[in-house]
Amino acid sequence: MEIAVVTGTSTGIGFATSVHLARHGFRVFAGMRNLAKAEPLRAAATEASLPIEVIPLDVTSTPSVSRAFETVSEHGPVDVLVNNAGIGGATPLELTPEDEHRRMFETNYFGSIRCIRAVLPAGSSPPPIRSPTPLRSGRSSARARRSPTRCAASASAWSTSSPGWS
Description:
four-stranded parallel beta sheet; alpha/beta; Rossmann fold
């Protein structure tokens, strides 16, 4: 069974992606910063007999990312990575305080990079593009419609469009 890791799974797109992948044959490791919010996903998995395991994962913490991917690696290599964890916002860039910009980039950009690095072997290149791509790291497709000048959340999401590859 192929393994998928999804970050930011307590609600919304991450929750739905975890369920969708599990229904389509993946063993899903659903990363969540706050495990107090895990019960709805665990209940959905139990009710539908889906192979979803909720794991603690705070993408802003290198030790947390390392522990999470060590747990996953005990079950095999990661075939799919969905970097869904993120902080949104709609404040114009010039009105967003610098500390908020930093939190968004720490989560939306550096969090994605931490997870990608945890999956790829050290010093490796990205996998060749082929169908199906064995490793895919992606954020919401909505980022393609955003402008990096509109708000900090858009700028940080836009930055993950190509951190060398995507």
